[in-house]
């Protein structure tokens, strides 16, 4: 898709500039004209939005993250559709990913432990709600300028087989035989295309 120009509108949001791009869509900085605050908007590319399975994954991400109010998980504010464009609105972060931090130089053992504990806390909150990330990796872990860790991109998140009574309902989880994730951080059962649970995220955390 063509990138959105500064000033373009998506519902009540005015695009300011493009800040990133990934396999699940482009990310823009935008202005919420109702609440007068800056937010991030993630857009599903048209070619993916036309794919029912990929569109469902995008919508699952929005519902999953919206249900998780935790300081170590990216907060989602809204999800919508405008003129055929499907988007999710999240808090705007300043900083960089763990991958970028590693590329900038060695991380001290103390800092590595601090980051690891925050990742574990965020995952524990997700697992308590019956949600597995499935694609935890350095690119999906953000370090804010004030030292907080935020887990990003629940685009592959799936409901566990036995959700709790207060868990969000997320249909269409990964079926056995379907391989989703990133090589190098996938648990053996993910690589084999078997059904996974929270232990796949623990494996990925260890790999990170």
Task: Report the order of strands and helices.
Answer: EEEEHHEEEHHEEEEHH
Sequence stretches where pLDDT stays below 50 over 5 or more residues: 159-174
The secondary-structure class comes to: alpha+beta
Q: Percent helix among the residues?
A: 25-40%
Strand-residue proportion? 25-35%
The CATH topology of the largest domain: Transferase(Phosphotransferase), domain 1
Largest sheet: 6 strands, antiparallel
Helix tally equals 6
Mean pLDDT: 85
The global form is globular
Please give the CATH architecture of the largest domain: Orthogonal Bundle
Strand order of the largest sheet: 1-2-3-4-6-5
Could you tell me the radius of gyration in angstroms? 17 Å
Q: Can you count the beta strands?
A: 11
CATH class of the largest domain equals Mainly Alpha
Distance between the termini: 32 Å
Layout of SSEs?
Elements: E1 9-10, E2 13-22, E3 25-32, E4 37-43, H1 46-49, H2 52-66, E5 76-82, E6 85-90, E7 95-97, H3 98-103, H4 109-128, E8 131-132, E9 141-144, E10 149-151, E11 158-159, H5 188-191, H6 198-207
Helix pairs in contact: 4-6
